[in-house]
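ping. complex inputs:
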Amino acid sequence: LFALMYVSRRIDSKYKTDYYNRVMAFYRYVVEKDLSLSLAQTDMKGNRSLRPSEQEDPDMYVHIVKRDKNGIYVSGAKAHTTQSIASNEIVVIPTRNMTEADKDYAVAFAVPANTKGITMIARPLKETETTMDDSLSVIGRENIEVETITIFDNVFIPMERVFLNGEYDFAGLLAMMFPTFHRFTAISYRAAMADFLIGTGKLLASYNGVDDKSNIRRNLAVLISYKETLKATAIASSYSCTYDKQASLAIPDIIFTNVGKLFANENYTDVVKNIVDIAGGLVATMPSYEDFENSNEKTYLMKYLAGRKKEETMERVRLFQTLREFISSLGSLYLAGMIHAEGSIEASTMELCRSYDYSSSIDLAKFASGINDELEK
Amino acid sequence: LFALMYVSRRIDSKYKTDYYNRVMAFYRYVVEKDLSLSLAQTDMKGNRSLRPSEQEDPDMYVHIVKRDKNGIYVSGAKAHTTQSIASNEIVVIPTRNMTEADKDYAVAFAVPANTKGITMIARPLKETETTMDDSLSVIGRENIEVETITIFDNVFIPMERVFLNGEYDFAGLLAMMFPTFHRFTAISYRAAMADFLIGTGKLLASYNGVDDKSNIRRNLAVLISYKETLKATAIASSYSCTYDKQASLAIPDIIFTNVGKLFANENYTDVVKNIVDIAGGLVATMPSYEDFENSNEKTYLMKYLAGRKKEETMERVRLFQTLREFISSLGSLYLAGMIHAEGSIEASTMELCRSYDYSSSIDLAKFASGINDELEK
Amino acid sequence: LFALMYVSRRIDSKYKTDYYNRVMAFYRYVVEKDLSLSLAQTDMKGNRSLRPSEQEDPDMYVHIVKRDKNGIYVSGAKAHTTQSIASNEIVVIPTRNMTEADKDYAVAFAVPANTKGITMIARPLKETETTMDDSLSVIGRENIEVETITIFDNVFIPMERVFLNGEYDFAGLLAMMFPTFHRFTAISYRAAMADFLIGTGKLLASYNGVDDKSNIRRNLAVLISYKETLKATAIASSYSCTYDKQASLAIPDIIFTNVGKLFANENYTDVVKNIVDIAGGLVATMPSYEDFENSNEKTYLMKYLAGRKKEETMERVRLFQTLREFISSLGSLYLAGMIHAEGSIEASTMELCRSYDYSSSIDLAKFASGINDELEK
Amino acid sequence: LFALMYVSRRIDSKYKTDYYNRVMAFYRYVVEKDLSLSLAQTDMKGNRSLRPSEQEDPDMYVHIVKRDKNGIYVSGAKAHTTQSIASNEIVVIPTRNMTEADKDYAVAFAVPANTKGITMIARPLKETETTMDDSLSVIGRENIEVETITIFDNVFIPMERVFLNGEYDFAGLLAMMFPTFHRFTAISYRAAMADFLIGTGKLLASYNGVDDKSNIRRNLAVLISYKETLKATAIASSYSCTYDKQASLAIPDIIFTNVGKLFANENYTDVVKNIVDIAGGLVATMPSYEDFENSNEKTYLMKYLAGRKKEETMERVRLFQTLREFISSLGSLYLAGMIHAEGSIEASTMELCRSYDYSSSIDLAKFASGINDELEK
Ligand SMILES: Cc1cc2nc3c(=O)[nH]c(=O)nc-3n(C[C@H](O)[C@H](O)[C@H](O)COP(=O)(O)OP(=O)(O)OC[C@H]3O[C@@H](n4cnc5c(N)ncnc54)[C@H](O)[C@@H]3O)c2cc1C
Ligand SMILES: Cc1cc2nc3c(=O)[nH]c(=O)nc-3n(C[C@H](O)[C@H](O)[C@H](O)COP(=O)(O)OP(=O)(O)OC[C@H]3O[C@@H](n4cnc5c(N)ncnc54)[C@H](O)[C@@H]3O)c2cc1C
Ligand SMILES: Cc1cc2nc3c(=O)[nH]c(=O)nc-3n(C[C@H](O)[C@H](O)[C@H](O)COP(=O)(O)OP(=O)(O)OC[C@H]3O[C@@H](n4cnc5c(N)ncnc54)[C@H](O)[C@@H]3O)c2cc1C
Ligand SMILES: Cc1cc2nc3c(=O)[nH]c(=O)nc-3n(C[C@H](O)[C@H](O)[C@H](O)COP(=O)(O)OP(=O)(O)OC[C@H]3O[C@@H](n4cnc5c(N)ncnc54)[C@H](O)[C@@H]3O)c2cc1C
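pong. complex structure:
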């Protein structure tokens, strides 16, 4: 909601609107009632090379279909909204910048999840269920977030919950600011995931008796660097935050935030490669829980699945099984999440290049090449 | 079996043994009866920094426990043997080079899969089953290979099926030659997989209306390059094969084979990254088959899951579902397979650096730096 | 010239022109007189986001300024033409595909290098000279190719040397076919360069006593893979060539050629990283030839620059010096050459994605996802 | 010197020595007299797979050859000492950890650069000179740091300047702490370099009219990410510093520092690739200063070297020339510096893996896989 506070101030000051107060009222309401929120930003988008208003089916992006003095009516659908099933309120904001033609698509609001006209269709749980059945692993049981397609069929939104209503020139700013705040939470979640992998990698290599080999150290260094680089950009981003007077908010540094996000997106598959390299083939072929229930098979398995020391066998087995779930059952979820969450690589690259302030770099280049005799600063 | 033919000739000529004839007899037998084989090379290995004979539990590598005039008795276990459940005969060879102390571990033989004393424990089928249930995808249903841990408990092998029996100085050559031949088959399997991904990527991007964007082209170029580089190394490897007179065999070029294998190992996660990048978040959140059975939900889904054109919606849905299975349910299998099959990256790097003939490179370096005045050739 | 033969046949058959005979006549002339050629394809290009005919200055691409019955008059300039100074004839072809508006830019011809109106300005020789002075290294002395900017100021080209004269629809094909043939030569030159680096890397690591360390093997494997992958794509490309009946020519496979070229472009800096990693800091700080002339300093240097064995010291010194020249003095030349020669990465990616035949991949994807029940082939 | 303060406290407290006071006295002396220091840590090392005391020539690492009550006598040589020629005092510390056998190699001290018995041999200046001659570029003229081989031939060091004298168990800590502090300075120098490249890349792409193309944005994002990731790790490292009571010093966080350093080492060639990709072939073939002095050639050059706008031509030329010097003349220096300075990649990877505290990661892995029921913290 910080992004809404930040942007609403700016809209109000340009258009003499009253969004900031609406946002603050909603914010207080959420805090008081201890409500959970989900954020629906990403639209279905149809043909990605057309703008919202150019789509064959106008509902490909959520938009205003009718306005009356009490509120607005919206239709369309948002893709992959995390946790919407479990939350009380859905916050809807635009997914991208808009032009004048896309005016009706420049819309932001909050709405209770159980409002009439809202339908949610969840991603398949099969995979998660597979994991849940397995009594050995905790990871699947504890981490069940479910994404939905969230469909709006002529849903009424009362005026006091409308936070953007056609001011298309602010859609882009709002679309950009939301993830900026959001990425902080993302960092801690990702760091935890990396921690799981670092620990698993270190243990599996130790069980194999090879954790101090040069090649394994290279693998571990990739896992460690992934986590610590994310943490570093998060720290740098808060440390270099700017204070926004209008909204009384500290804004995390956009460049550090984006650099960290892009690093996370681009390097996650490298992390996967390195943990699989450490683990070896058993990450695919480790027998499952049931095989350990047959006592004859169990004896063989406990004998042959030993690594360095017999006593560690069961730990080794569980780590392999859990890593398999992580990579397999939860695989597409984590891969898509790490590569796409909060915007695809291309979108983030574009944003980074646009928001970067090149002036001091250009000064230095001109100075170094003798074009300018002095550095401006 | 070509590797056995090749190596047995060499052992025979050094030790006056009769392995080549045994191998050829077995080969004729297999061809006549049209038997299927599986190859058990990779041992359990326990502590990876100890040699076979140094392990706490001597059974960590398959080895000879007794010899009599009719044959040998072997114990130990082989990890991840592909297709052993479905095959008639198991061919066992050493997983690495051996020293004199590892003499009893220098053993190769063939044995019917249903021989007394052999137990096989399969990798979990849960994942594959998940896929099989899904009536939309073919990929899971058709590709069910199952790896097993194959345990030998004092199994008798009659002499005519024993192909290596303590000649430890040939264990390494055999261990290396087997995969060299094996990798040919691997190439075609991998190229098919890459083809599936190229087609899926091209179609998904087309449905999204973005298949000619610069960033998508970069993604597709990675997929195409993966496949075509593998194919190129395979072609170069047969083209540059050497003919072995002793065994009357064409031996694929070891360097090209290994370079192709390493390329496949090192770059597979990059392929995954690029296909996920093309696909977007729906690869994780696309609803599954059942959601399309409820007619109300189906109407919404068919409307909102459209890309460029309405008529393509169902194709788009199926491709996303199949790609999810590929990445998720079959994920750890493919990842481990692509990164480890036929030897880990470290093992292959070692092999490449050892088998490379540096002489002409060294000549050139010495000439270029003025150490030698002339190039030898 | 093969590209010209190939394309001229096609133009002739569409436009009833007589280019093929002109090309063949020129070809015979070159062979008879044993003339050397240079190829001028890349134009100056000015603003890269505008087409040739849209440029502020029309001379940014070489074009026809006047036509009479004896020939054409051309103006404009070609950038970085290799070896033009030393060659007898310059062959000029278009740098890209053209539209009708660019008609006058669709021009190809051959012209003697000393024709009136042609001016050549060479790239700076300072760097090469630096190397030439150093009596220890051969690499710089022997490899002096010089690129020029080649300027055409209203140069007359007699009709029998004109090979494209406004047939804009063939400019793209010609622009693409030329490098396809050219890249064969490029492969062998690049493989030689890689050989120099492999030999240097292997020797330097041996002198340091570390050539069998895991990390050094990884470095060497990168160098070896670079060379052997290039070679593999070259072999595959000739092996899969298609025979063109119209021009009686074997055409190398375009996909393998491009995949090899892109691999070379994308991975060259990785090669540099690995050789510098092997070499260590002395690649920058190794004293130069003159320091070895002062006998006092020489004694110290010979003592302290020893690696594994005293006798190898001078070899070690020379290899370091030569590698420094290679990376430094010749650095921008090799870097730009390896990354850009025969087309930038973006241009090659575009070409690869366009010329790739996706049909069998799409078939497979549709079959695997249950869209089609059968594979077409 | 902070590292010496930090370590000397620890030695004193174990061995009841008086090093801390010596260090502080030297520190005050340096500050008072405003002396410049250079740091000589890296030894010549000879055979890299042997320890210091195992070398054929004992002088391959600087060591104590004699001790008397007034001081010590040292021999040996240090490689690539930056700025030693221009500095007043040389600080010498061990390059690695030492065992008891290497006792005499566990030595640290400070000594005036002009002391009898010290000889310095500089790296070749040819390249730098090349650049200096070119009146257009500032970069070469202003950045002349010179590395030397610094030879010690039985040099006397008075006791009050000796900071380690055989306490071999502290050699490793000292060797590690020095670069930890040093890397802060390194960060700012590297960030400046990255700034030059960002500015140059942005300008060159603008002159070409392509700075907003997708592929160029990818290139720029690599340059920006390089700089900002370095900055982020530096910020995180100071932010997470620990305060050392013994020496009254803030110690930068070792993990963030090392992660930043490794990132810089591993990715520098990628930066080079991206700037060369942006620049195009002119980075190699841009004519030099002298060609612009001939008025005839100048007219042509000014016409044809224009990009988007005529007025920018001279700026474009200068940027290209400067970038060429940067990549070529200064090339091996920057490459070796970025890849090796303050320790090779292998050494840093080892250090990172050793100093990392795995406990919380291991906790999490055990919890997630059901081995432990609870998280320790
Ligand atoms: C696990 C998970 C959780 C998520 N949680 C949330 C959430 O809580 N709330 C929320 O709002 N969103 C959420 N998202 C959505 C996420 O932000 C999107 O996945 C991301 O923005 C990419 O959008 P997309 O999936 O529609 O992919 P697409 O936009 O379809 O992208 C697919 C590919 O096409 C390319 N592309 C698309 N358009 C263009 C174009 N015009 N030009 C060039 N290339 C183009 C992209 O770069 C990408 O490579 C979640 C996603 C995941 C995977
Ligand atoms: C899908 C699949 C199918 C397979 N099919 C077959 C088959 O049909 N027949 C068959 O025989 N095998 C098969 N394999 C096995 C395959 O060859 C092995 O997975 C591979 O050789 C790696 O061995 P590992 O799994 O035991 O891993 P490990 O050897 O345990 O390796 C794990 C990690 O430790 C490292 N490591 C291990 N030892 C050392 C050491 N001493 N020094 C430094 N680093 C070390 C490795 O480099 C790797 O990074 C299959 C594997 C898979 C995944
Ligand atoms: C050592 C060397 C030898 C050579 N020898 C020859 C030779 O003998 N004959 C010959 O004809 N040529 C030769 N070349 C030229 C070579 O083919 C070109 O360098 C190459 O095609 C790139 O063109 P450019 O240098 O003009 O770079 P540019 O085209 O300016 O490219 C610079 C950057 O801008 C990007 N870019 C340019 N236009 C666009 C656009 N419209 N959209 C998006 N991005 C764009 C490129 O992708 C690249 O990243 C040689 C080059 C070198 C370095
Ligand atoms: C521009 C520049 C400035 C510098 N400034 C200073 C300075 O001011 N003061 C200072 O003290 N130093 C300085 N250095 C030195 C720098 O710290 C070293 O270059 C670095 O530590 C690597 O050492 P080396 O150059 O001897 O390479 P080497 O140690 O010879 O390394 C070469 C290769 O061999 C590998 N290798 C070496 N030993 C082993 C082993 N036992 N096992 C496995 N692999 C091994 C390395 O990983 C590397 O890949 C500078 C270096 C440069 C390039």
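The mean pLDDT of chain B is 89.
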